[in-house]
Design goal:
The protein is mainly alpha-helical. The chain has four helices and two strands; from the N terminus they run αβααβα. A two-stranded antiparallel ribbon has the order 1-2.
């Protein structure tokens, strides 16, 4: 049985610290799909990857923009 790279046990509590870990190393400005790929490569939980993939913004100027898009703050 193959294992997925992302963690998949239960629902993850997505928080800003986990998001920052997931997108660590991203080059900005960044497209949403590039950040999704970075998060997967960094081993982010599938729930976080899905939430990031589902935001309406398609380009980000920095990590603060990503946080605002994901958490609405």
């Amino acid at each position: 049985m193959a294992k997925s790279k992302g963690k998949s046990k239960g629902k993850a509590k997505i928080n800003p610290v986990e998001l920052q870990r997931a997108i660590k190393g991203a080059a900005y400005p960044a497209e949403r799909e590039d950040l999704v790929s970075t998060a997967k490569n960094n081993g982010a939980h599938n729930d976080l990857v899905d939430r990031l993939a589902g935001v309406k913004v398609i380009q980000f100027d920095g990590p603060d923009d990503v946080r605002k898009a994901v958490f609405g703050k």
